[in-house]
Design brief:
By secondary structure, this protein is α/β, with parallel strands linked by helices. About 45% of the residues lie in helices and about 15% in strands. The strands form two sheets. It has a four-stranded parallel sheet with strand order 4-5-6-7. Strand 6, helix 8 and strand 7 form a beta-alpha-beta unit. The protein starts with a helix and ends in an 8-residue tail after the last helix.
Length: about 240
């Protein structure tokens, strides 16, 4: 419960930050705002999030493909490379990103009465690391810009979710990691995590379609014996209280 409250607080603080960084009155007044426990529309009405998740698009997951064992983005890519070669695999990912989610999908979601979509993404979309058919010229902002434009035209808000963080935040296949939540121990990974979010927040600071940022998805798998210590270290750093 404490973990949930922590990340909800971070989510809301980032949302407020987006509002405060607006450079013009028109943009500022078009943001969802916060009053106590409530989200408010620009005209002052209570806003209740109703929507769905655009999973498996920018962070492929094995269970959504109905794979039995090949469960993370890295393993899926490795499987495809072994089956059809790296060049075909790179072309496949490029086509996949172009076609798995389109404007028509966003319009359909809006037609159901939803008002929000959540977009999970892999941190590698904002680095020079090899991911989904690209290196160096990753297209994270281009992909999100497309969704922002589609959502604006359809009247939807957008939540950005870093589903796969540098080093991994869960230690499970969910975050495309190496079996341990290294993000919570590695300072370089933590710095990269912060740098990416700062870059995203600066880029979208005046974009009212962005409802908020889900900084980390599902931190720490529950089967680690040092789970509580890792959480405390992530929150307090070197000053984390010791558990007896």
């Amino acid at each position: 419960m404490k973990t949930t409250i922590l990340y909800l607080s971070l989510f809301l603080l980032i949302t407020i930050g987006c509002q405060n960084n607006s450079e013009n009155k028109e943009s500022k007044n078009s943001f969802i705002t916060i009053s106590g426990p409530d989200l408010l529309t620009p005209d002052g009405q209570t806003f209740f999030i109703k929507g769905t998740n655009l999973g498996n698009w920018l962070n492929p997951e094995g269970y959504m493909f109905r794979f039995a064992k090949t469960n993370s983005p890295g393993r899926i890519n490795q499987m495809l490379c072994e089956l059809v070669g790296p060049d075909f695999t790179a072309d496949f990912w490029k086509e996949f990103k172009e076609n798995y989610i389109t404007r028509e999908d966003i319009n359909f979601i809006a037609s159901t009465g939803a008002n929000t979509v959540r977009l999970p993404f892999h941190y590698k979309l904002f680095t020079d690391e090899d991911y989904m058919g690209l290196t160096v010229t990753q297209d994270g902002f281009a992909r999100i810009d497309s969704v922002v434009n589609w959502c604006r035209d359809a009247g939807l808000y957008l939540i950005l979710d870093m589903h796969d963080a540098p080093g991994g935040q869960t230690g499970d296949n969910i975050d495309d990691s190496y079996g341990y939540p290294w993000l919570l121990e590695s300072e370089p990974s933590q710095q990269l995590f912060c740098d990416i979010w700062k870059k995203i927040a600066a880029y979208y600071k005046n974009e009212p379609v962005i409802l908020g940022y889900e900084l980390i998805n599902e931190p720490i798998a529950p089967y680690f014996s040092n789970m509580e210590e890792l959480l405390l270290r992530a929150i307090f750093g070197e000053d984390a209280p010791r558990l007896e």
